């Protein structure tokens, strides 16, 4: 079986969990993906089956679009809602105009430092494994491009937004940086990938449907390469 399958990854599963499920259920030896999602995130996971795995590097370089939310006044060790609270701060001095001004500063080409809890490697070891052992390694900032950053709703202390960004952008680090700029801290509470390159959420298959679909019907859901 060869082709590209767009899965709507549910919260709680790793991208590797989904890859393993497809590999075992359908007996496909070669299954990969074109960009992972953290367990807290949902949405577009581009799976590459069979010969399509050769496209991994090309598709990983595609832009991504996310719907996200952050909460002001609370920071966590992982920069998202799955982490332990690191600090809290009053947000009464933050208003809508200040939020809009700060958001505008995060559009365009930026340097972003990878978070301590990430898959970026240091001497061959992922940073998240070092972080779990209490070892914090500062990595060099990476150049990213935030092509669009639109505030959808402000309901303090939460802010809902959509971001169109280049590969390698950490949205939870973006939330953390916005919180720092506002002077009150923040962490990411929600993340949903709605597009990866040309692949949108509207053509995805849910994980529940994936669990019951037959190989024949799955073949019909694949985008051929």
Automatic annotation (TrEMBL):
Pfam families: TruB_C_2, TruB_N. GO terms for molecular function: RNA binding; tRNA pseudouridine(55) synthase activity. Residues 172-212 form the tRNA pseudouridylate synthase B C-terminal domain. The active site is at residue 38. It catalyses: uridine(55) in tRNA = pseudouridine(55) in tRNA. Gene3D superfamilies: Pseudouridine synthase. The keyword tRNA processing applies. InterPro entries: PsdUridine_synth_cat_dom_sf (IPR020103), PsdUridine_synth_N (IPR002501), tRNA_psdUridine_synth_TruB (IPR014780), TruB_C (IPR032819). Its EC number is 5.4.99.25. It is an enzyme of class 5 (isomerase). Residues 23-171 form the Pseudouridine synthase II N-terminal domain. One of its GO terms (biological process) is mRNA pseudouridine synthesis. Responsible for synthesis of pseudouridine from uracil-55 in the psi GC loop of transfer RNAs. Belongs to the pseudouridine synthase TruB family. Type 1 subfamily. This is tRNA pseudouridine synthase B. It comes from Candidatus Aquitaenariimonas noxiae. The lineage of its organism: Bacteria, Pseudomonadati, Candidatus Omnitrophota, Candidatus Aquitaenariimonas. The gene is truB.
């Amino acid at each position: 079986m060869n082709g590209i399958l767009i899965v709507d990854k549910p919260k709680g599963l790793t991208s590797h969990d989904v890859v393993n499920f497809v590999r075992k259920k359908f007996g496909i030896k070669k299954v990969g993906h074109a960009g992972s999602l953290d367990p807290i995130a949902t949405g577009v996971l581009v799976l590459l089956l069979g010969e399509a795995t050769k496209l991994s590097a090309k598709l990983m370089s595609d832009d991504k679009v996310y719907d996200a939310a952050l909460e002001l006044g609370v920071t966590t060790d992982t920069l998202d809602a799955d982490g332990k609270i690191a600090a809290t701060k009053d947000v009464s001095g933050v208003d809508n105009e200040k939020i809009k001004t700060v958001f505008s500063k995060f559009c365009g080409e930026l340097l972003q430092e990878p978070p301590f809890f990430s898959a970026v490697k240091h001497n061959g070891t992922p940073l998240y494994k070092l972080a779990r052992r209490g070892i914090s390694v500062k990595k060099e900032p990476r150049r990213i491009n935030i092509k669009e950053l639109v505030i959808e709703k402000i309901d303090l202390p939460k802010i809902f937004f959509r971001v169109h960004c280049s590969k390698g952008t950490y949205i939870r680090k973006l939330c953390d940086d916005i919180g720092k700029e506002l002077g009150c801290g923040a962490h990411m509470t929600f993340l949903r990938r709605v597009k990866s390159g040309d692949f949108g959420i509207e053509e995805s298959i849910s994980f529940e449907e994936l669990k019951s679909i037959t190989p024949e019907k799955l073949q019909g859901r694949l985008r051929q390469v």
